[in-house]
Amino acid sequence: MRKWLWILMACFHAATAAAQTNADSLAARLADKSMSASERIRTLNQLAAYYNKDSTNIALVWANEAYLLALREENHDLQAASLLNLSEGYLYNDQYDQALNYAYTALDLVETDSARARCFTFLGWIFYDTENAHFSQQYHQQAYDIYRRLGDPRTIALSLNALGLVYLQKDEFATARKYFDSTLQLARDRGLGGMVATALSNRGICENEFGKYNDAIADFNQALAMLKGGDELSHAEVLNQMSYSRIMLKEYPQARELLAQARTLINQSNSNTRKEKLLDNLTNSVLLYQQLGEYKTAFTELQEYTRVRNEILSKSKSEAISALKLKREADENQTRIITLVAQKELRSFQRNALAAGVVLLIIIGFLVYSKLKQKQKKEKELEEVKRALIKQELEGALMEKEALNNKLEFRDNDLKNYALYISQRNEMIRHFIDELTGLDIHSDAKKENIARFNKMVNKFQHDLDINKDAQDFNLSVNEIHKDFFFNLLQQFPNLTENERRLCAQIRLNLSIKDIASLNNISVKSVEMARYRLRKVFNLEHKDSLSDFLKNF
User: Fold this and answer.
1) Where does the sequence pass through the membrane (predicted)?
2) What is the pTM of this model?
3) Which of 272, 281, 416, 430 is the most buried (most CB within 10 A)?
4) Are the C-beta atoms of 14 and 125 separated by less than 8 Å?
């Protein structure tokens, strides 16, 4: 485990300012009674961040006080900041269930993208430490996407390095190397010295996996040069990794010296993560002594490795699968002194519990499946009822439309018959007048007959000009075909009253002769009027004027 690498990344942006501030001065500020509640919460969180790395229990006290005060103030942002400090503290103590709970609670409270990305980063490290690379990659990728959108080079570099560590955990070393190279390039361009050292060290680990031990040593030396005066465990981690390179190159004296230097730095540190660096040191020590043939010493180092590892992993409570497995193995080791009968009873109990759990899961699964099927059946029935109602409404609308169309067609036929009647009547009157005017009344007729005939002709001519029936016909057309005239005028508002009337008569399929008789005009006048309408409507020669008007 290489926890210092990711802990440095997770805490870098939260604790940098706090690490620069003296803890005593921060504590002294808390005595100021005039300090606002928000400022007090921020100071408490600074103290928690300051102590989290080396004095986690003290940090948890400060963070818990900050959280309670933030709850009282109902400030979600400060609550989330306090929860993340609590999460970090429990993560250092390997209490992953608590750390995960606080991180998820913080995620539910945050509102800004930067705060959400920070929560994703914490979640990524929690799952990384429990060796769940899938979820760790998912959360670190979400954090990286946000940071890249926000455009902050430092946080982008942190996320790139975190993704590289996840791929390193998955043994996908080529992919991990690409992420570390990207981190290194960005850190150098932006002058992020600490990130440069971290990326170099991580890249060196990849070089070791590729068998490029000299290249790895070059990266480690560069990292050490940049870490002068820094954290002891940071130096120790690089020295541990470099010792592995020396062992693989069979440079055993140099490897022994590097391991000794790393062990000294580890023993000097009070950090909660020192045991993890000790594990790396012991692992390489076992390898070194095996290569040297000093098997007794190698065995002693291996025993120490097992003791330290069990001590670390026993603190994982229930969330990490690997920790649960190791705990079960530890329990089995402790029960070896129990008699065969007791062991048989224990295995029987475990089998029964497992069987009960399986049966319970099957029952729950069946109930859930039945409920889902019932819900789907109800939804299907409801959908069928809706479809039937829609179909019924649609059929009713179609029938209503058909009835309206039939009614309109019937009234159109009435209008047409009425028009034909008027046309025939006018034609008859015209013929009658023509016959009257053709009578010879100048020979033997008396003057009173002449006056009478003239009066008759004038009366028929007057009635024909007034043509009240034609006016009634036009009024009927206007009343029945309101929608037609409205739609027509929407598109052609400049049509005259005579043109609109002619459009309605053409739409009724009246012949040119009937239209001429109906309007008491000549056939040629009707043809000219039709021609003008075609020009107004911009119709081609092949287009039907009657079909065009039926579209309105």
Assistant:
1) 353-370
2) 0.55
3) 281
4) no
DSSP 229-283: TS-HHHHHHHHHHHHHHHHHTT-HHHHHHHHHHHHHHHHH---TTHHHHHHHHHH
- The pLDDT tens digits of the residues spanning 80-101 come to 999 998 888 888 877 777 888 8
CB 258 within 8 A of CB 242: yes
Q: Taking Cα atoms as reference points, which of 68, 62, 125 lies closest to residue 92?
A: 125
Rg (CA), the chain: 49
pLDDT in tens, 395-454: 777 777 665 665 565 456 556 656 655 665 676 677 667 766 665 556 555 566 666 667
Characterize 189-199 residue by residue with b for buried, 16 or more Cβ atoms within 10 angstroms of its Cβ, and e for exposed. eeebebbbbbb
Token pair 């170099």: residue: 200
Which two structure tokens, joined as six digits, stand for 364? 């729950």
Please report, as a single letter, which amino acid is at residue 526.
V
pLDDT of residue 328: 37
Amino acid at 440: D
Extract long-range pairs of 317-326: CB within 8 Å, 24+ residues apart: 317/95, 317/96, 317/97, 317/98, 318/97, 319/96, 319/97, 319/100, 319/130, 320/96, 320/129, 320/130, 320/131, 320/132, 321/130, 321/131, 321/132, 322/130, 322/131, 323/96, 323/130
